[in-house]
Amino acid sequence: MQASTPDYATTTASTEGQPTVHDVFEPRTGTWQYVVADPATLKAVIIDPVLDFDLATQVISTTTADALLSLVKEKGYHVSMILETHAHADHLTAASYLRYRLGTGSDGFKPLVVAGQRIREMQEAIGEKYGVPGEEYINVFDKLFGDDETFQIGQLTAMAIHLPGHTPDHLGYKIGDNVFCGDSLFNADLGTARCDFPGGSARDLFKSGRKLLSMPDHFKIWTGHDYPSAERGSPVPYMTIRDHRAQNKHLHDGITEDEFVTMREERDANLPAPRLFHQSLQVNIRTGQLPKPNEDGSRMLHLPLKLSGEKW
């Protein structure tokens, strides 16, 4: 089944020093992708792009990523980086595909695929768990940000912020008065992300949430996912710090660290694994590059089996 082409909305820079933000929702995995641009220079970054994967057929396609390419072309942007917030466990990243498609110009430039420096730990742990050859994930990122490292998007200065909790390698990206927080905070009626993935920590997530909510009230927090209820209807890409502090069901003002940790751990204990958990982790530590083909040309991923009842 082919993915539908996603729509996008645009938040135009209102003052100097602020970016133009295009939010693009991918409904099959509930993922928000972002194209963030400097309106003065048209330099841009793409955050957390999605590669389509059909679990029933095992077919990978690029409809969603191609829509991002169309947006970039329509706006005349020059994409300098593709930013990952973490090693996602619920969708495959389109970073390598986009790097290839955006790097075919005559100048030979290819956008950098970037994550946080702690993703090395995730790559090693996931690579060992699934038997991924080291040469397929070691040094595949073009750059790894340190905590609070700044970088340029045209004339805009951005910062990589360490936000552990959902995963230990998790980053947010502060660009102007906006923070792209990945899977840290969700819309207020959903609260926060799960913390039961390898290296996750509810206590760390509470501290990361407080770090975010200590920023100025007018800052916008752009989330990595949304799963809207029937009552709410449409997915929501951002809320202000002020609104999160008043309305976020898990982290509103007055919630203590111990209350949050107890709630989060109890909820996580009953959550099923994401549908694309095994596939996502193995592909994403490779920056979206596919496994090398075997002798008959097939590209293989490993899936763990569980036995029910007595051992054979």
TrEMBL record:
Alphabetized UniProt keyword annotations: Metal-binding
Domain Metallo-beta-lactamase stretches: 30-225
InterPro entries, per database record: Metallo-B-lactamas, Mito_Persulfide_Diox, POD-like_MBL-fold, RibonucZ/Hydroxyglut_hydro
Compositionally biased tracts (Polar residues): 1-18
Species whose genome carries this gene: Apiospora rasikravindrae
Keyword Cytoplasm appears in the UniProt entry: no
The name this protein goes by in its record: Metallo-beta-lactamase domain-containing protein
One Pfam family from the record: Lactamase_B
Region annotation Disordered: where it falls in the sequence: 1-22
UniProt keyword annotation of tRNA-binding present: no
